[in-house]
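User: Hey, my collaborator sent me this sequence without any context and asked if I could get a structure. I don't really work with proteins. Can you help?
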Amino acid sequence: MLSAEPDLEVVGDAGSGPRTEATPAELRPDIVLMDLRMPDGGGVDSIERMSAAGLPCRVTVLTTYETDRDMLRAVEAGAAGYLLKDLPRRELPDAVRAAARGETVLAPSVATRLVDRLRSRPDVPRLSARESAVLRLVADGCTNAEIGRRLFIGESTVRTRLPRVFAKLGVDDRTAAVTSAMRHGLLEQ
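Assistant: No problem. I've predicted the 3D structure and written it out in structure-token form, which is a compact way to encode the shape of the chain:
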């Protein structure tokens, strides 16, 4: 199917995990499409080894396995995409092109499950937009008065909001709040 596309070239085919790992080093493809279950191993372990080897190819999983565990392990191992074999045939070439451009390609059901999983993470505190803005300015080293001026709120409002932020983060002071926020990725804009 991919060979029929004028702008795509299939440079190799591997039928086992060890062969899948060797092929990118030999042929230098832009994209490796691989299943999670293959004869003689493969899957997540192969993705990890290819990622660790620093090969310039992007691994995209093409599989029938749609469990949270499989998806998360593949992405954590370095997979740049996760597609399901029930993908309409006409969509696979576009997904390969997108992966070659550096985009993350996910089957719609996979994307939905990953987003749902991220939203339901109990370990990440939920801050309001205003609380996040206050916390960013705390991280910048601003005083309560400076935060109030920058956000056009009173200093007393800042003093009221900070204990709420501390409580949500489970900390007692500004330094611990910034450290916790950094650990949870809450300071990224």
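In plain terms: Residues 143 and 172 are 17 Å apart (CA to CA). You can pass these tokens on to your collaborator as they are.
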